[in-house]
């Protein structure tokens, strides 16, 4: 769908050893069983399903919220209600 790119503040750059982050956004339809979705790394602590009208309040980073709001029409068009 797109990317979100931002630079870390200087103190965070020193701590992480990275200057910036690029996040690639994908829209996928999961066809398996919920129990199959388990975190595989320490970076992701949990996996959960959230209703689309609750996404904005769940997102923490401004860049992520903006991406979600700017692409809501595309996101909704990719969701199939059964």
Give an account of the 3D structure.
With 82 residues, this protein is of the alpha+beta class. Helix content is 32%, strand content 15%. The protein has helices at 10-16, 55-58, 62-70, 72-77; strands at 2-7, 20-25. The protein has a two-stranded antiparallel ribbon. The radius of gyration is 15 Å and the shape is globular. The two termini are 23 Å apart.
What's the total number of strands? 2
* Radius of gyration from the alpha-carbon trace, in angstroms: 15 Å
String of helices and strands: EHEHHH
**What proportion of the residues form beta strands (DSSP E)?**
5-15%
Intertermini distance: 23 Å
Structural class call reads: alpha+beta
| Helix content percent band | 25-40%
Please give the largest β-sheet: 2 strands, antiparallel
User: How confident is the prediction overall: mean pLDDT?
Assistant: 84
- Runs in which pLDDT lies below 50 for 5 or more consecutive residues are none
Number of helices: 4
Task: Please state the overall shape, judged from the principal axes of the Cα atoms.
Answer: globular
* Largest sheet: spatial strand order: 1-2
């Amino acid at each position: 769908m797109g990317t979100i790119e931002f630079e870390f503040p200087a103190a965070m750059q020193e701590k992480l050893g990275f200057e910036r982050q690029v996040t690639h956004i994908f829209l996928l339809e999961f066809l398996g069983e919920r129990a199959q979705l388990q975190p595989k790394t320490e970076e992701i602590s949990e996996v959960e399903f959230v209703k689309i009208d609750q996404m904005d309040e769940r997102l923490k980073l401004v860049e992520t919220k903006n991406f979600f709001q700017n692409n809501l029409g595309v996101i909704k068009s990719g969701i199939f209600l059964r």
